[in-house]
């Protein structure tokens, strides 16, 4: 990825250009100390004078009123705020007419910013004051007052906090008076510029120490650049939060959100005092010290999938290269490319007005349909369909271009959704709720309706990243989530009645990805690459999970890499310095998943014997138990030396009835309540009591015996035996109460137990006779 810059031969402004701002993706306004406001049209390459300001107005900062709020378009006429050196800010219309001028500060007004919904304006002055104004220019409050000038200010993602500079320090101040203020030393010189992105919640700062830095919203340093030759005079996040630009003297830099630099341009501009991104994030403009306005387009983005590499060579042109045979195809578009995604054999390209869907088997005839909004901010793909996110909402389309669904939920702000907070599978869409990050909203991808009667999935901590698995039937769909403690959890998406079980499967996980062809999960854990061959093992036998892991030492990676994709047996990682690293994973687990899905247990056993890998045997044991394939499970557990489990599986096989077998399988997975419910439903009261006795759930065993008026003496007898063994006396009041009126006779108890078991055997035999007769008929 790099910037393609363009500068006019002669500057249009006669003095230093102080600020720039986009009205549309093809129209820009620039203000200069020559008192002129110019309009730049990129389609016709024309530059017009909008207005010549009065000679006493020297502009410093410009910010357009936001066009959309969440999903609604603003109906207010297009205006922008212009701050100037005379202590005033001016509300100026698109035609250049000054609608209102407000005395705001003593000395220059150094910054002015609308919040995201346009309900408030913040100004920062040379007098050290920060003030909040209504959109009509009425003073609401003075938020802060300090001894040094405030050079830059930015709104928090929800417009409920303010970030501003204070000498060498940065301050995050909530609008609520009682809330805690965060303040920290950010640079060794005065901080000149800040920006705060609403999508990734990261903060940028640049200062006179010639460095730019990336911080999280708590003030923790994520990246610090090396020292440049000149102070950093401007910086700005791209709207989608994936990249940012940094301006300095004769320097324009494009950087990834993690801090490393994609490209460095050295144009003859003087200091770049302001940079602004267009709404679609494809181009930026810079206000230059020598009177120029520099334009830069983002080109040479790369997408990879299996044997295809696709490059955006120009704004409207892509090159497709097949690395197997070096065949090259060139794709031409009518409008400039905004977003693209390549996966599952399809390339989806969103331009400013249309969406193109290409099949990797045929690059000549794309399917084309028109887009409503235009500024697509995110594309996610699954095997059967893809999801487009724009400023107005979320839309699921089939690869034939048919709109399938459009999920909606209260308080939806589609403009701040990113790939970490949204996930798509063939049947489900998962979205992290921005208003409460502990909540994950789940929707049916085919209807757009909320799952589980609209009840979302709630975790105990804020969720950082979500990912749905891609294979298998919809009723077995799993979601993996990383919370802010960096713990990795797995849970079911579709569950009947009861609360879903959220199981922890890893800790210190920084990023993760599901495989595209099997439900195998990989993640960067601590300093190593970990692959969970069969994460669902946590639901059948959680002690088995550590045996199903494949770990790769992270010494070949630099500082915490980020997983980009996991396709086939190849994991693609992006290192801290921006370089790509590929890591291969053995192919056997994917084959094992395939055999398990199609119930080819003999082939699965053959594969495990051939591979001679303990982790594969452990996976097979978990898969066989989940599918109630006891013979295969017995052999797999025996191969990994789990003899107690082999014995228990034998015990399950000897159970006289299907209900008993099922109950003990549930017991095997630790689902005691479900096992008990299964037995009670089948009328096997004694067996349900015995299950609780075996687990020393004495009170529950007695409760069942009393409720069903049977085997009270059995419970008391086993309880007595248990207490005698440990030399203890009975202290439980309920047991003492029933012990008085019940006589314990072991011979009678044994006879009763034998009778119960023979009844169960007889019932099972009758059931099997009935089923065989039904088959004959």
Please specify the SSE layout and strand pairing.
Elements: E1 2-6, E2 17-24, E3 27-32, E4 36-41, E5 46-52, E6 59-64, E7 68-69, E8 72-73, E9 79-84, E10 88-93, E11 98-103, E12 109-114, E13 120-125, E14 129-134, E15 139-145, E16 153-155, E17 161-166, E18 169-174, E19 182-185, E20 191-196, E21 203-207, E22 212-215, E23 221-224, E24 234-237, E25 243-248, E26 251-256, E27 261-265, E28 272-277, E29 283-288, E30 293-299, E31 302-305, E32 308-314, E33 317-322, E34 327-332, E35 337-343, E36 346-351, E37 354-359, E38 362-370, E39 376-381, E40 385-390, E41 393-398, E42 403-405, E43 422-424, E44 428-432, E45 439-444, E46 457-458, E47 463-468, E48 478-483, E49 488-492, E50 503-506, E51 509-514, E52 521-525, E53 528-532, H1 537-540, E54 549-553, E55 562-567, E56 570-574, E57 580-584, H2 588-597, H3 601-611, H4 614-626, H5 630-639, H6 643-653, H7 658-668, H8 672-681, H9 685-694, H10 698-707, H11 712-725, H12 733-741, H13 746-776
Antiparallel strand pairs: 1-30, 2-3, 3-4, 4-5, 6-9, 7-8, 9-10, 10-11, 12-13, 13-14, 14-15, 16-17, 17-18, 18-19, 20-21, 21-22, 22-23, 24-25, 25-26, 26-27, 28-29, 29-30, 31-32, 32-33, 33-34, 35-36, 36-37, 37-38, 39-40, 40-41, 41-42, 43-44, 44-45, 45-46, 47-48, 48-49, 49-50, 51-52, 52-53, 53-54, ...
Would you write up a description of this structure?
- The chain has a 4-stranded antiparallel beta sheet, with no helix packed on it. It has a 4-stranded antiparallel beta sheet with strand order 2-3-4-5, with no helix packed on it. A 4-stranded antiparallel beta sheet has the order 6-9-10-11, with no helix packed on it.
- The protein has 777 residues and is an alpha+beta fold.
- It has 13 helices and 57 strands.
- It is 20% helix and 40% strand.
- Keywords: Cell projection, Cilium, WD repeat.
- Residues 300-588 form the IFT80 second beta-propeller domain.
- Pfam families: Beta-prop_IFT80_2nd, TPR_IFT80_172, WD40.
- Its main location: other.
